[in-house]
Amino acid sequence: MTSDTGGTVDGPTSGTETKSEPSPAPPTGDHPESRHEEETPAAVALVSVAPEILADSLGEYLKAWAKRIRSGESGALPIILGLILIIIIFQVQNSNFLSAGNIVNLLVQAAFFVTLGLGETFALILSEIDLSVGFVAGIGATITLALVSPSYGWPWWAAAIVGLLACAALGALQGVLITRLHLPSFVVTLASLLGLGGVLIFLFDSFHGAVGGVISLPISGPLYNLVNGNMSVAASWIVLVVAVALYGLVSVTRNTRRRSRNLSAPPLSITLATVAVAGVAGALLVIVCNINRGHLTPLNGVPWVLPLVLLVVVLWTLLLTKTRTGRYMYAIGASPEAARRAGIRVQWIRTAAFILSAFTAGLGGLVFASRLGSISVGYDGSTYVLYAIAAAVIGGASLFGGYGKAVHALLGGVLIAAVVNGLALIGVSTAGEEIATALVLLAAVTVDSLVRRRGSTT
Amino acid sequence: MSTEGSEPDGTPLIELRGVKKSFGAVQAVNGVDLKVMQGKVTALVGDNGAGKSSLIKTIAGLWEQDAGEILWEGEPVRLRSPKESEGLGITTIYQDLALCDNLDIVQNMFLGHEVLRHFTLDEGSMEITAKRILAELEVTTVRSVRQPVASLSGGQRQSVAVAKAVMAQAKLVIMDEPTAALGVSQTAQVLALIKRLAEGGTTVLMISHNLNDVFEVADWIAVLRLGRIVAEGPIDTFDSSVVVDYMTTGRSERALAGSGTGNGSGQ
Fold first, then answer.
1. Which uninterrupted H or E stretch holds B155?
2. Per the structure, how many domains does chain A have?
3. For residue A124, what are the domain limits?
4. Chain A residues with CB-CB distance to B118 below 8 A
5. CATH class of segment(s) B1-89+172-178+194-267
6. Residue A44 lies in a domain
7. Which pTM does this prediction carry?
8. Could A3 and B112 be called an inter-chain contact, meaning their C-beta atoms sit closer than 8 Å?
9. What is the mean pLDDT of residues A288-305?
10. Is residue A281 one of the residues assigned to a domain?
11. Could you tell me if A32 lies within 8 Å of chain B, comparing CB atoms?
């Protein structure tokens, strides 16, 4: 046993009181190894810890961060590098790739993959899989579009709520089958994938408002404008400023609050830099979206769907990181037995994950239908679910459970959209498109298993 | 054969009287009488198949005994589910430790008992409490309470499991082979932890194969063989060879003077 007294946990001499001295040991590059000679796994582990734990100053923070990346805890870095690589390749092939019009188009395409991927992330965190999200999204959209069509003439919000509730109900049904009958989620959701494809055709057959197997959205209704409507220039800047200010306020408050309680917190400069990066990224997005991208008539502005999808990402991030439900999802994903012994209602949390997965997929269905202005009987839910899984996994969610963040689906969805969009732009066939997507998925998972070793000692 | 030395003083925290448990034709626990004294470390030793695991699972509430009774602080109790055992203040740390690798130390310690503030997780308060408990247990080798448990050594994991029990304000902590998978220095670390746990007033019932560890920390030893306690007594009235005799044959010719003794029924 080593006599380490300098850790964040106070040494033997300080006994029961820990508040009088924060005593974070000066984390230098070399001494953890020498200090923990007997504790080899602990010494190895040090590098896989989040940098803010080890560092108080900016320099130390960057050093810890670099060390963490070298040790394989690269986080979102490979995916961002991959995205940059893909952008360069497509831009060289076709100079229109980075035009304002195509960037907006790409992001709108991504909105669908991101939302489906968000749904899938819940299942993946729990070490389950949900193969039904593609068709659940289609069913929800079909119900909503049928209800707003002239045949029924429901208000858009009521139709959307019913569509989303139908999705949630499908998720609940699957969750109950999986948890109560102890069926593998793979089998239950595979059955849904097949069965709901049939249900979709049945819905179109029995709905008289479907013309030629297509249900259209009333042009210029709120659902249509979700993707096709744009925020005014002033509105987009106001939303950006408010969002960044809010983010900055929350981050800085949290940072100073933790400091005042002698808890580890990243250097204030890092917190401010993060907020600044978010602000610059947001400003770039707003600027690009506000460039005229129309051909005959002027067209500019941020499509409503972009801030709304970001809002869903934020909400689901809060759910996963700030609530008991989210915490229990990660716990169950890593060790259902540990969760059960901790008194967690494992079966209920599992069911909730499938409900959330299906509900989020329903949001994706609305995005999909809004983008096309319609939904058709040819909706290919079985392909879209693979994109959803790819988006979540490329982003960094683990197929083995316990890991995954909402923001991962965001990154993965944008990357998938970049590939799909770029290949279409340079005129690759559907066959080529699917093969390329598969290769990207394989590459991402390979990078994941080779580089991201998760710092485990076992 | 009973002598004065083998009778502990005062009311035991938990007492088993004639506890039996069988699985089909197999009599796993065959009439065990055992007293676990308040604030002491009691070691339960025995060979494979002696019934140690069956016995502690009975106390942990995984199943109820077929016959006999269990007294908690002198009162008869029924332990029909893990919840009932936990309700009394019994925490069992199994060999697998039941930790979530992807969560950090604080998150594991508070799993299922998270502190909320404004309807969201109050990470700050939980972190402060976790640090305090680890400091009380003098767990000093962990670098940060925000390390994921996956990055901890075996001894550190054991420490987290113990800290979790302390946080749950356990009166009796049952530890199943706490040092089985550990190296020398980490074993020392965990044994020191067990001592501090007992010094803090928590009662420990520890199962172990490793007699060195038992003699290092235990105050009282009970030897289980074929579902029966064949010998028990204060640790200083035993030595390794005597315990091994009891574990393997159920009797010992080499008993030390004033030794704790065999339990009549077994012989």
1. helix B154-167
2. 1
3. 82-229+303-449
4. none
5. alpha beta
6. no
7. 0.83
8. no
9. 89
10. no
11. yes
